[in-house]
Design brief:
GO biological process, one term (chain B): amino acid transport
Largest sheet of chain B: none
Strand content of chain A: 25-35%
CATH architecture of chain B: Orthogonal Bundle
Strand order of the largest sheet of chain A: 6-7-8-3-9-10
Largest sheet of chain A: 6 strands, mixed
GO molecular function (chain B): transmembrane transporter activity
GO cellular component, one term (chain B): ATP-binding cassette (ABC) transporter complex
Number of helices of chain B: 9
CATH architecture of chain A: 3-Layer(aba) Sandwich
Family (chain B): Belongs to the binding-protein-dependent transport system permease family.
Oligomer: heterodimer
Structural class of chain B: mainly alpha
Membrane topology (chain B): Multi-pass membrane protein
Shape of chain A: globular
Number of strands of chain B: 0
Strand content of chain B: under 5%
Radius of gyration of chain A: 18 Å
Distance between the termini of chain B: 48 Å
Number of helices of chain A: 9
Number of strands of chain A: 10
Largest interface: A-B, 29 and 21 residues
CATH class of chain A: Alpha Beta
């Protein structure tokens, strides 16, 4: 069964047609990279998957539930779908450790000792065990983003959505975050949907590359076809040639 | 001044006590009621939002004295007996809670929307996100303006004097009219109000500093 399936999805903001006839299947365990110029609907698309944006028509099945259906309890879906944001969105009033432990405690009712053990393991994994008692305001962007990834992982989701996770970071911090993401992509059966401009990441660990423009999916290729062959779509080719040059 | 204090200290002390009691009750309840209406105002639910908005607009735009008089005169006439102290305290609570609702609402809305989105994406319900993430940050932001509201509340409690609430202002009026020493009577009353409001003012400032230390 697919982890995420879009069927004829349309999304409007007022008169603005943000997503046009989206049809897309993402299988469990896949790492899918979503690229395209700004304003093309990448972020909107990824935010519909956990219901931060509602779609106007079509079907959107996530982890076996149609989340376009108003009766679907989004909180249940979100337990299994993590998200990492461009601006981290760490809880400013909580320590790093509490950032990671809060949702598992409240949502999953995880035992306190086990919760702490798991949180510390995740901090080790992202290389920030010494920051456990820090407040988010004291972290650099790269550190904050790695904590945000650890916070998502603590819920042990089946899928994580990454919405431009490195776009707000200083260049020298990007690699730290990408390395953590690559580990996740390699290590587990985690499904990853990643909006990014980091072509190196897409090439190294991506399974598929999707190119969007003007709210439409114009290209949906294996990474081999996208990078080593040629995208079929003219706009995708132009975009690729520009982004590779830099 | 010494004469007024030495001859009337018992009356003054009683008035001070009533003012303090009224202020504490009104402060507690207006904070609770004001916060509830603030939350109603930011809810996605249109009906809740409208009720919250209507409450705030109604009570912050009517003079405190009119609200108080309503409880002092209208309620006993049609419903049940109510003391001046109770009428004044209820009026003050309702009036102040409208301002506190405005203050807290502004605080909630100034918390970055990413905090709510982060919480929801992490699996929390709307109410868990409010309770653990958004509201604590909102209250921290509004400590200084809330301090203003609290100080205004203590001073506004002098409305009790109009409805025989036997507060500091009421007793001051009585002493002034019996001794004819108006200047000294009101000077003493002024100093006694300062004794309540100054520590409150310093305490709010202390809270503000303390909450800033936690983050930066």
């Amino acid at each position: 069964m697919s982890m995420i399936e879009f069927q004829d999805v349309e999304k409007y903001y007022g008169d603005f047609h943000a997503l046009k006839d989206i049809n897309l299947k993402i299988e469990a365990g896949e790492t899918v990279v979503l690229i395209g110029p700004s304003g093309s609907g990448k972020s909107t698309l990824i935010r519909t998957v956990n219901g931060l944006e509602r779609i106007n028509s079509g079907k959107l099945i996530v982890n076996g539930r149609d989340i376009a259906d108003k009766k679907t309890d989004m909180n249940k879906t979100r337990k299994n779908v993590g998200m990492v944001f461009q601006h981290f969105n760490l809880y400013n009033n909580k320590t790093v450790l509490e950032n990671i432990m809060l949702a598992p405690r409240l949502v999953l009712g995880r035992d306190e000792a086990e919760n702490k053990k798991l949180a510390m393991e995740l901090l080790e994994k992202v290389g920030l065990a010494d920051k456990a008692e820090s407040m988010p305001a004291m972290l650099s962007g790269g550190q904050a983003q790695r904590i945000a990834i650890a916070r998502s992982l603590a819920m042990q989701p089946k899928c994580i959505l990454f919405d431009e996770p490195t776009s707000a970071l200083d260049p020298e911090m990007i690699d730290d975050v990408l390395n953590v993401m690559k580990d996740i992509a390699r290590d587990s059966s985690m499904t990853m949907l990643v909006v990014t401009h980091e072509m190196g990441f897409a090439r190294e660990v991506g399974d598929r590359v999707i190119f969007m423009a003007d709210g439409q999916i114009l290209e949906d290729d294996t990474k081999e076809k996208f990078f080593d062959g040629e995208p079929t779509n003219e706009r995708a080719r132009q975009f690729l040639s520009k982004i590779i040059k830099h | 001044m010494i004469n007024i204090i030495s001859n009337h200290w018992q009356t003054l002390l009683y008035g001070l006590g009533q003012t303090l009691l009224c202020s504490i009750l009104a402060l507690f309840f207006s904070l609770v009621i004001g916060s509830l209406f603030a939350i109603m105002e930011v809810l996605p639910n249109k009906i809740a939002h409208t009720i919250g908005r209507a409450y705030v607009e109604l009570f912050r735009n009517i003079p405190l004295l009119v609200v108080t008089m309503f409880f002092y005169i209208v309620i006993p006439k049609f419903f049940f007996q109510i003391s001046g102290f109770a009428a004044g305290t209820i009026g003050l609570t309702i009036y102040t809670s409208a301002f506190i609702a405005e203050t807290v609402r502004a605080g909630i809305q100034s918390v970055d929307t990413g905090q709510m989105e982060g919480s929801r994406a992490n699996g929390m319900t709307y109410w868990q996100a409010m309770r653990y993430i958004v509201l604590p940050q909102a209250f921290k932001i509004v400590i200084p303006p809330l301090g203003n509201q609290f100080i205004n509340l203590v001073k506004n409690s002098s409305v009790l004097a109009f409805v025989a609430g036997f507060d500091l202002m009421y007793e001051g009026n009585t002493i002034a009219s019996t001794t004819f020493d108006t200047i000294n009577s009101y000077l003493v009353v002024g100093v006694l109000y300062l004794i309540i409001t100054m520590p409150l003012s310093y305490y709010m400032r202390y809270l503000e500093k303390k909450s800033n230390r936690g983050v930066n």
